[in-house]
Design brief:
Layout lengths: L46 H4 L7 E2 L3 E5 L9 E6 L10 H19 L4 E7 L9 E8 L10 H7 L5 H16 L4 E2 L14 H7 L33 H8 L7 H11 L3
Antiparallel strand pairs: 1-2, 1-6, 2-3, 3-5, 4-5
Length: 266
């Protein structure tokens, strides 16, 4: 006979809890005798060890910092990884001391961004044996996002704009590079036009089609419509085509002779 599930805990009434309505506690599974290997354990490949430097926003001699592959709901979500394939408890004294320094530097860099109030630092380690620490920025003024459930809110909030996201990444990478290492994140390119082209641009704005709305990261891939095929090029105006193909009329002989005499120098 299964045990009666416990009542819903008090934290479901906290303002920071992201859900509401009827909630039920799951039955707790029986413990397994042997836990499965994490990535980087046993015969499982390590994602961090196989990743090139180009996949990170900043790299150093012993540490690397990477971001998500797309904008997130929070202003910034970053992961600090050691280059060596070590877990937290396996770090030698040198790397253990550097971990504290890197944690403080990265927290300060993220907190320097506009609109960031706090930076949450988390380490779980259940998915990978390679040391990785999470840094999550809480937006300023969003008191409902304080505390334990910030990582859940990141998946609920709409993602920030890609331009702002890339700018934030570049600023954090530049901050870290002040102490060494190599920044790899670049800010978004500025879209500009020469003054001579502004008039032509304003004349064509009325005929421009509206830009496609960026798909949210919380949408499923199969729900995003496929890109429509490009419209076929417009056919030429029959009147213009016939005019372009008509040959020029030959000049009359008398007018041609007068023209030559006029152009002959005296």
């Amino acid at each position: 006979m299964q045990d009666t599930p416990p009542s819903v805990p008090d934290f479901t009434q906290w303002p920071s809890f992201p859900f509401e309505g009827d909630l039920h506690v799951k039955q707790l599974d029986e413990p397994v005798p042997v836990e499965p290997p994490r990535r980087g354990e046993g015969h499982r490949e390590c994602t961090a060890c196989n990743a090139p430097d180009e996949a990170y926003i900043w790299v150093g001699e012993r540490w690397r910092v990477r971001a998500m592959d797309r904008p997130t709901g929070l202003p910034m979500v970053l992961i600090l990884e050691s280059r060596s394939h070590l877990d937290l408890g396996d770090l030698p004294n040198l790397l253990a001391a550097e971990l504290g320094v890197m944690t403080v530097r990265l927290e300060r860099a993220i907190r320097s961004l506009d609109g960031v109030a706090r930076v949450h630092v988390n380490r779980w380690g259940d998915g990978s044996a390679h040391l990785h620490m999470w840094f999550l920025a809480r937006p300023y003024g969003r008191l409902q996002l304080r505390g334990t459930f910030l990582s859940l809110w990141d998946s609920i909030l709409p993602p920030i704009s890609e331009a702002q996201w890339r700018e934030n990444l570049a600023m954090v990478a530049a901050w870290l590079a002040e102490f060494g290492g190599r920044p790899l994140a670049e800010p978004p390119r500025i879209q500009w036009q020469a003054p001579s082209s502004l008039t032509a641009q304003s004349a064509g704005e009325a005929a421009e089609e509206p830009e496609e709305e960026t798909a949210s990261v919380i949408e499923a891939a199969d729900e995003i419509p496929e890109a429509e095929t490009a419209d076929a090029p417009a056919t030429e105006d029959p009147a213009e085509a016939s005019t372009a193909e008509e040959p020029e009329e030959p000049e009359e002989p008398e007018k041609a002779e007068e023209s030559r005499q006029t152009q002959t120098p005296r």
